């Protein structure tokens, strides 16, 4: 079934996120994770390292201990047919078409489009932010689909979300120079207290709005955490020319909203 219930669409509109349980089968998760693990072991380019992101707890440089730990396997759509097939599958694209309110959607190649990793020992924390602060589209209305390829819990750094924050118009003074929410402002601390954890089982998909405030902790387990992450836009919501968002040609998809 590709269509969302009216209540699910209403929940996403109000809260900025939705969790669809067991969207991927056990066999799909196993195959996708195996491919990702093989490419991680081979350090198959293009990749981003923990030292590159400069997040809290990350090594200062690639030469430091843990600096060569892979943070993301980039350009996932073109890495393997299995990743592309997941990104294009009708149930997922149908749901996203509904959330975007468009029958014609595009997979965004320049943002996310990756295998997101968190390794034991050398994983970093991602501070509170909104994705659209780094992106440049005509409208702040994109949806990210985060497929858990293993359990995601507080111990291994699962996502934390502030429900409804995609509807807030926060002044730029509440963010630091890296566009992270400042922790020294009482209003921000009160907002952070509203957060909840998006704990996921393998095969669960977290869908969230590009304006939703989110963060994630470090992996404190002995097992690598992996997720397959893609972002989508309505075809009419164009990237702004000359920006990073327009660097790659996005992939046309047809959302089946009649299933």
Report on this structure.
- With 259 residues, this protein is an alpha+beta fold.
- The chain has a single domain, classed as Jelly Rolls, CATH 2.60.120.
- It has six helices and 13 strands.
- The strands form two sheets. Strands 1, 2, 3, 4, 5, 7, 10, 12 and 13 form a nine-stranded antiparallel beta sheet that branches. A four-stranded antiparallel beta sheet has the order 6-11-8-9, with no helix packed on it.
- The longest helix is centred in the first third of the chain and has 16 residues, at 26-41.
Descriptive terms for the model:
259 residues, disordered C terminus, alpha+beta, nine-stranded antiparallel beta sheet, globular, Jelly Rolls, four-stranded antiparallel beta sheet, single chain, 24% strand, 6 helices
Tally of helical segments: 6
Rounded radius of gyration (Å): 17 Å
Q: Give the termini separation.
A: 6 Å
- The CATH superfamily title: q2cbj1_9rhob like domain
Count of beta strands: 13
Please give the CATH architecture. Answer: Sandwich
For the record, the CATH class is: Mainly Beta
Largest sheet: 9 strands, antiparallel
Order of helices and strands: HEHEHEHHEEEEEHEEEEE
Give start-end ranges of low-pLDDT stretches. Answer: 255-259
Tell me roughly what share of residues is in helical segments: 10-25%
The secondary-structure class comes to alpha+beta
| Molecular shape | globular
CATH topology: Jelly Rolls
User: Average pLDDT, to the nearest integer?
Assistant: 92
Q: What percentage of the residues does DSSP assign to strands (E)?
A: 15-25%
Number of domains: 1
